[in-house]
Amino acid sequence: MSENLELFIRAFWPMFKAGLLYSIPMMLISFGLGLIVALLVALGRMSRFKILSGICATYVWIIRGTPLLVQLFIIFYGLPSIGIVFLPFTSAILGLTISQGAYNSEVIRGALMGIPKGQHEAPASLGMTKFQTLIHVILPQAALTAVPALGNSFISLLKDTSLVSILTVQEIFATAKQISAIEMEPMLLYCEAALVYLIFSTFLTFLQNKVEKRLGRHLVPQE
Questions:
Q1: 142, 147, 149, 150: CA torsion to nearest 10
Q2: Cα–Cα distance between 187 and 64 in angstroms, integer?
């Protein structure tokens, strides 16, 4: 029992450190880039240009219809066969960004479509261009309504980073597997890895609730 406790304590910092150095940075970078992709795809799907709308819809259909694990394998192990090679960390960021872009584009598209038509027409009557209306009127309102869903996606992304262990990125789960291979205590160490993910997720959930409450003050019921 004491040996297991000693191992638990000794293994905690390497896993927690892996979360700080790899899992959290991957989550932040991928989510940020994914939001940019998601916004562009959402606007593309709402475009009057059928070709652009079709391309964006196909992208969302493919990414949402295939497992993230398979996508990561294609990027890291498949692309080198045609001469395209990425480093493990870069492959992880690319795969997670592509996935986030597809899923969050639907969240953003739903938020944009939920804006009343009058919010588009009123700025036009004041002489604002469509781009100005989008930037100054539509997006701020859509962002408020999209925050809860995007927050959930943000936290889920932390757990998805465990999949990049197959790319040899030394994040939380990969570190747990590495220690387990040496210590031969998979049950203890994998449960500890789950605990580390839970600690990070709980903190992120706390931050999400704070942000939602703060932004909730600015939400005005729309008729």
A1: 100
A2: 32
pTM as predicted = 0.85
Phi, psi at residue 84, to the nearest 5°?
A: -110, 115
pLDDT tens, residue by residue, 71-124 = 999 999 999 999 999 999 999 999 999 999 999 999 998 888 877 766 655 666
Minimal CA–CA distance to 46: which of 180, 142, 154, 188?
A: 142
Q: Residue 115 gets which letter from DSSP?
A: S
- In angstroms, the CA 153 to CA 105 distance is 11
Cα separation of 42 and 109, whole Å? 5
Cα–Cα distance for residue pair 191/153, rounded to 1 Å? 23
Residue 103's CB: how many other CB atoms inside 10 A? 19
